[in-house]
Amino acid sequence: MRILLFTGKGGVGKSTVSAGTAAMSAARGLRTLVLSTDAAHSLGDAFGVGHALGSEPVEVADNLYVQHVDAQRRFEESWAEVQGYLLSVLDTIGVDRIAAEELTIIPGAEEVFALLELRRMAVSGEWDTIVVDCAPTAETLRLLALPEALGWYLERILPVQRTMVKALKPVLTKAAGVPMPGDSVFDALVRLHGELAEVRELLSGPEASVRIVLTPERVVLAEARRSWTTLSLYGYRVDGVVANRIFPAGGSDDWRAGWVKAQDDVLSDVGASFEGLPVWRSFYRPTEPVGVEDLREVAEAAYAWTGSVDPLAVPDTPAPFRTETDGETTAVRLALPGLAQWVERDQVQLGRNGDELAITVGAYRRLLTLPAALARMRVSGARVEGGELRVTFSRQTTNTESETS
Ligand SMILES: Nc1ncnc2c1ncn2[C@@H]1O[C@H](COP(=O)(O)OP(=O)(O)OP(=O)(O)O)[C@@H](O)[C@H]1O
Ligand SMILES: [Mg+2]
């Protein structure tokens, strides 16, 4: 099963290109699902089926199904138990019901549940291709950082909480009348934790990749470069770029000639910025591409630009995170492509705390839990070189203090 995610700045054509890619996959006879995690669903409009779409996949052509994830419903299914408990606590301490409901809605919840829905579809075994039309870049980056971040958090609070609850139960129930969480609350959290781990495995696995959609404009390109680095930091493979809404040359209009020239300049920078990745080109059409056929044509035309790359095949892009052992030392290599173009070397920071490595790139940070074998070793060096961060570990028992470089 192939999972393709499309992201990019607002309005660049993510929905158009993802819908088109899905239509193309379906036309090849692959059972294809395209779903959007963006709350502002527009797939229905692109396919010309309006808002007839529901939270379950709807067939719009042979082999082609579309789904608008109903985050609210998934939220209710997975979080209701935990929320119910939190509400009863807040009620006991006198928090007004409306305010309490606000408080128990976790930030980013909608996005988390969109991911859980993606997982449900992926494990159903029903699909050959799943195309995900993501929200604009910033939200997508937050979304894709969530499974690991939330997993990290749950791993740390779960065992502590369970022990604490056992110890405090008799005291608390008597003293303040605060209800204690039942096993079902913990079970719900444990299940959530497991499902998020699966989401992470699916999305960082070899069959999943992210494509960046952009329009040939400086500001859009700058954001696209940053997202390439950041996606890699979080462990996702980026396997290509779609440059959309390119003005075709021709005619004798100065205004048009001006745009064609300006876009050409940016396009050559796109090529240089995303070296090693296919850059597909999609021209500005005279009308909005709407409906299965139009969308499929847009995608076919774009992917034909680099004829040798099959846009639906599993890419041979290596995983951004790799380890290499050579005698007494092990090197962890984290690809941070495009880094040099937007970040100063000193904006990359590395911290170590026990079995964790905290990597900060500009405003983004990833807490990486080291494999057991590395956790026992000492960091003996770190450098940024050739688009990757390379951290070397030496075999020597660590002392527990943290080291920062
Ligand atoms: N190559 C193209 N030629 C002509 N019109 C296009 C092209 N690509 C996209 N459009 C149109 O541009 C508009 C925005 O496209 P689309 O909705 O796919 O962008 P998006 O990145 O998903 O936007 P959002 O960030 O709002 O989700 C739509 O009206 C779409 O039909
Ligand atoms: Mg969209």
From TrEMBL:
Catalytic EC class: translocase
Keywords linked to the UniProt accession: Arsenical resistance, ATP-binding, Nucleotide-binding, Translocase
One Pfam family it belongs to: ArsA_ATPase
Domain spans labelled ArsA/GET3 Anion-transporting ATPase-like: 1-302
Keyword Cell membrane: no
Listed GO MF terms: ATP binding; ATP hydrolysis activity; ATPase-coupled arsenite transmembrane transporter activity
Catalytic activity: arsenite(in) + ATP + H2O = arsenite(out) + ADP + phosphate + H(+)
PANTHER family registered for this protein in UniProt: ARSENICAL PUMP-DRIVING ATPASE ARSENITE-TRANSLOCATING ATPASE, ATPASE GET3
Role description: Anion-transporting ATPase. Catalyzes the extrusion of arsenite.
Similarity remark: Belongs to the arsA ATPase family.
Name recorded for this polypeptide: arsenite-transporting ATPase
The species this protein was found in: Nocardioides turkmenicus
